[in-house]
Amino acid sequence: MSMSRRKASESSPEYPLLGFLYFQPLHGYDLHKRLESTLGEVWTLPQNQVYNILKRLECQGYITPISGESESHTPNKQVFTLTPAGKHHFETWLMTPTPGSSKALRMEFICRLFFATQISEDLYSRLIQEQYHEIHRSVEYLKKKMEACPAEQVFNRMGLDLRIRQLIATLEWLETFHQICEEQLT
């Protein structure tokens, strides 16, 4: 998707929560524990915020409470499951490349890859390739902005140069990460 057509990054912790629910119904406490243990260095989220997000997702029709026990076997607690709308919302996010921003790549893209590896190797490989192209497009876009930026706008040029260098480093990281994951996943 072109940078000009894409709205701002959707770096929201709702997506990892929806992702965990994509595979099985869970209670808020279990969602928080799963988030901490698998993506805790990517997303830092207090437990009370998990419950607030779950309320919002329920109001939006993306999740619904069901009866049953949670993974921790806590009785009388709400266990949530994805609705068809929630599944569609998560899958749409999963298939959308992350824009070329270091923060968005660290949070969104790593999270997407985490869930993609659990769905299919083909999906995982496709996301890596699409992301590589998206970052490359972002670098080219920023280089054009740099060329058009007047020399006397030193701080604008410094900002653009830093963003370009970060994205080039991200492309190198992505190639290395892809090789490591390929070795571990096969």
TrEMBL record:
<protein>
    <submittedName>
        <fullName>PadR family transcriptional regulator</fullName>
    </submittedName>
</protein>
<dbReference type="InterPro" id="IPR005149">
    <property type="entry name" value="Tscrpt_reg_PadR_N"/>
</dbReference>
<dbReference type="Pfam" id="PF03551">
    <property type="entry name" value="PadR"/>
</dbReference>
<dbReference type="InterPro" id="IPR036388">
    <property type="entry name" value="WH-like_DNA-bd_sf"/>
</dbReference>
<feature type="domain" description="Transcription regulator PadR N-terminal">
    <location>
        <begin position="17"/>
        <end position="91"/>
    </location>
</feature>
<dbReference type="InterPro" id="IPR036390">
    <property type="entry name" value="WH_DNA-bd_sf"/>
</dbReference>
